[in-house]
Amino acid sequence: MDKVIAAGAEAGELIWQMPMYEPYKEQNKSDVADIKNTGGRYAGAITAAQFLAEFV
């Protein structure tokens, strides 16, 4: 993350690391699939990041 923040500063872009609040991971669980790509009504940015983190 330090490299991303440094690159943002060099480019003049503001970067902020969002928390990966583990309890929100429950929103991506599915009864019919390995994982859902939408967490629900709340914490969309965090659940989207947790979804992507499963693949990178």
UniProtKB/TrEMBL annotation:
<dbReference type="GO" id="GO:0006508">
    <property type="term" value="P:proteolysis"/>
</dbReference>
<feature type="domain" description="Cytosol aminopeptidase">
    <location>
        <begin position="2"/>
        <end position="56"/>
    </location>
</feature>
<dbReference type="GO" id="GO:0005737">
    <property type="term" value="C:cytoplasm"/>
</dbReference>
<dbReference type="InterPro" id="IPR011356">
    <property type="entry name" value="Leucine_aapep/pepB"/>
</dbReference>
<dbReference type="InterPro" id="IPR000819">
    <property type="entry name" value="Peptidase_M17_C"/>
</dbReference>
<dbReference type="Pfam" id="PF00883">
    <property type="entry name" value="Peptidase_M17"/>
</dbReference>
<keyword id="KW-0031">Aminopeptidase</keyword>
<protein>
    <recommendedName>
        <fullName>Cytosol aminopeptidase domain-containing protein</fullName>
    </recommendedName>
</protein>
<keyword id="KW-0645">Protease</keyword>
<dbReference type="GO" id="GO:0070006">
    <property type="term" value="F:metalloaminopeptidase activity"/>
</dbReference>
<comment type="similarity">
    <text>Belongs to the peptidase M17 family.</text>
</comment>
<dbReference type="GO" id="GO:0030145">
    <property type="term" value="F:manganese ion binding"/>
</dbReference>
<keyword id="KW-0378">Hydrolase</keyword>
